[in-house]
Amino acid sequence: MRVLIITVTLICIVAAVYKTQLIKVESRRKKLFKKGLWSKHLRKKNHFRATRPRTKMGERVYDYDDMEYVANISLGSPIGQQTFLVVLDTGSSNVWIPEVNCVTDDCLKKNRFNSSLSKTYQEDGRTWSIQYGDGSNAHGLLGKDYFAFGTTMKDSLVVPNITFGMARKLGGFKDDPVDGIVGLAFTSIAVNGVTPPLIAAINQNQSIMKLPLFTVWLDRRVRKN
């Protein structure tokens, strides 16, 4: 079992821990191998990295899309009405999910957020655009609503007024078995300067989180004969 553990404190006395189970999905590499598209994908990704402007010297690291662990979140209210499978990304700080009006090929098989179904949705009015290191990208509008690590009010860490991206256009996510991405990094690298959910939990809930940290526990996976 893989578990994301978020340490919090309630009423400054009783310590509590929220756990979000991580789910292992079939890797993008395996899917592309099955379709005979892996070599093309790898050439495209390495070309993008080779031509991307470099601001610092360093050793190139190759990512072969070998595996991915994902988790469930909920956006909007009531909590649990609209749920999504996401990558928990420590290398980025933005939350985004495809919106209902996204009809590109990359969006069609994904769960999409419908703002009209949420009782607490607020328009932001700004646009956003993200380009990731592997060449994938996402673009759309910003909105604000309840965010929950999990899919039920009872067992989830719920944070109000989270600004998140509603993607109207995606590139490079067609074969990725997730709906979107939840960034766990710091506000300083967030596109549009939005506040990531964990940081917002500290700021909004009167320091309900005892420490500004989270941990990931990975159990040993043994192949059974």
TrEMBL record:
Family classification: Belongs to the peptidase A1 family.
Protein name: Peptidase A1 domain-containing protein
Domain of life of the organism encoding this protein: Eukaryota
Entry keywords, A to Z: Disulfide bond
Gene Ontology biological process terms, A to Z: proteolysis
Domain Peptidase A1: 69-225
Naturally occurring in which organism (per UniProt): Wuchereria bancrofti
GO molecular function: aspartic-type endopeptidase activity
